[in-house]
Write a structure and sequence with these properties.
five-stranded mixed sheet; 12 helices; 19% strand; globular; binds aspartic acid
């Protein structure tokens, strides 16, 4: 999902932006759940950005590899990929242009956990989280201490800011310097929904200005549309993975560069055991991507596992966590439409579900969960609300078609 809290242009909710809400108004009760899985093990589930790394990890798991190591194999792929700007190397930086990474892991068989938050200069923070679990008497290390620990146990220090991510940050800095994450958030009583129509001429002028500047900064033409989109509406991005073997052992991890252009030191839900990730192999495992601030407040992953312990199906357990987010906003759709959350849920018998607040993000993509249980596949998540979440500040109605091709950035 994507939110910026203080609008450069305070924009109104217009017809096209209300698509999801209208659908929801007509469907106040979530649709009956289609079955999301048949139980099978071994099995690995993850957010769809891990899909390409599932084959190798599944083979490893089927051949007797540890469940946490299997999950880490999945998330290490995007962490190493400089073209994936949501995690690890090449992740979009904080507002000062510094990449800060968060990760955590839980190892079911030994009932241990490790976590790191706000780590600079170390690419594979998921592995650092595992090292915290294995080499310290602590569960969580943050900031400079976490970086020094990582170096001490052998991780190389490297510059995580790729040239492309640096240019996107510079573009944001130059064009968004009055539109950042300072000031009260949507959960504050004084927050007001935007009031200026998104189709305003000001939007067109703004996009044109950002586009010209992107060209001057040397952002390659094929990445320019994606860069502009990131500047106008800073994205989040994360990968979660849970694994279950045929002995009934389970583990999981979540890793992220967090919210783009965040305040230095901001930790989202991803490194929080019980929010971004939680595993109890007596019951199941869950992880999250989306609005970290909202997920922390409902301790999403832990809530889901505890719901399953009390007998809910994976899908029911996830839907309940989503409804807690909705409750935190007193069902105020003027705010809920700007946030999103996806949960990836695996029960100890191999039953799984992917659930999300909205069906997709903006009008560019639907939320998916990736699965490998002998067959690798992706499935659309089951959404609580019909329609898609919206950019904040709202994008113009007449969004240029080329700006919708968000995925080009990663090609
Ligand atoms: N949950 C992550 C965070 O808030 C971001 C994401 O999932 O995309 O840092």
């Amino acid at each position: 999902m994507s939110i910026t809290r203080r609008g450069f242009l305070e924009s109104a909710v217009v017809a096209s932006l209300a698509t999801g809400l209208n659908a929801q108004d007509k469907n106040k009760t979530p649709q009956p759940s289609p079955p999301t899985s048949s139980a099978k093990q071994p099995i690995i589930i993850c957010s769809n950005n891990g899909r390409n790394y599932l084959d190798d990890a599944f083979l490893f798991l089927r051949n007797g590899g540890d469940t946490l190591d299997a999950a880490l194999r999945v998330v290490k792929g995007p962490e190493d990929d400089p073209n994936d700007d949501s995690v690890g190397l090449g992740g979009l930086p904080n507002e000062e242009g510094v990449v800060e990474l968060d990760a955590c892991c839980m190892h079911g068989p030994t009932r241990r956990a490790g976590s790191v938050g706000g780590v600079r200069n170390i690419k594979n923070v998921s592995l650092v989280a595992k090292a915290v679990m294995e080499h310290t008497g602590h569960v969580m290390l943050v900031g400079e201490g976490a970086e020094r620990f990582a170096v001490a146990v052998g991780f190389p220090r490297e510059n995580l800011l790729t040239d492309r991510s640096r240019k996107v940050w510079l573009l944001w800095k130059e064009n968004h310097s009055t539109d950042d994450w300072w000031g009260p958030g949507m959960s504050g009583p004084q927050w007001k929904p935007p009031t200026t129509p998104p189709q305003s001429e000001l939007w067109k002028e703004r996009i044109q200005r950002v586009e010209e500047r992107a060209a001057q900064l040397g952002i390659e033409p094929e990445f320019r549309a994606a860069a502009i989109r990131r500047v106008l509406s800073p994205p989040t991005g994360t990968i979660h993975c849970s694994a279950l073997n045929d002995k009934g052992e389970m583990s999981a991890c979540t890793t992220t560069s967090g919210l783009a252009f965040k305040l230095p030191g901001r930790c989202g839900d991803s490194p929080i055991i019980g929010a971004g990730c939680y595993t109890d192999q007596d019951v199941g495992s869950a992880g999250a991507t989306g609005s970290g601030e909202e997920n922390i407040k409902v301790a999403g992953a832990h809530t889901i596992v505890e719901n399953m312990r009390r007998g809910m199906s994976p899908q029911e357990a996830g839907m309940d966590a989503l409804k807690r987010i909705v409750r935190n906003y007193n069902n105020d759709m003027n705010k809920l439409k700007f946030m999103d959350m996806t949960y990836y849920i695996l029960r100890k018998d191999g039953a799984y579900a992917g659930v999300s607040l909205w069906e997709g993000y903006s009008d560019t993509s639907v939320h998916k969960i990736a699965i490998h249980d002998g067959t690798r596949r992706s499935q659309q998540t089951v959404a609580l609300f019909k329609g898609v979440s919206h950019e904040f500040p709202p994008f113009p109605v007449t969004i240029p078609p080329e700006l919708k091709e968000d995925s080009v950035y990663l090609k």
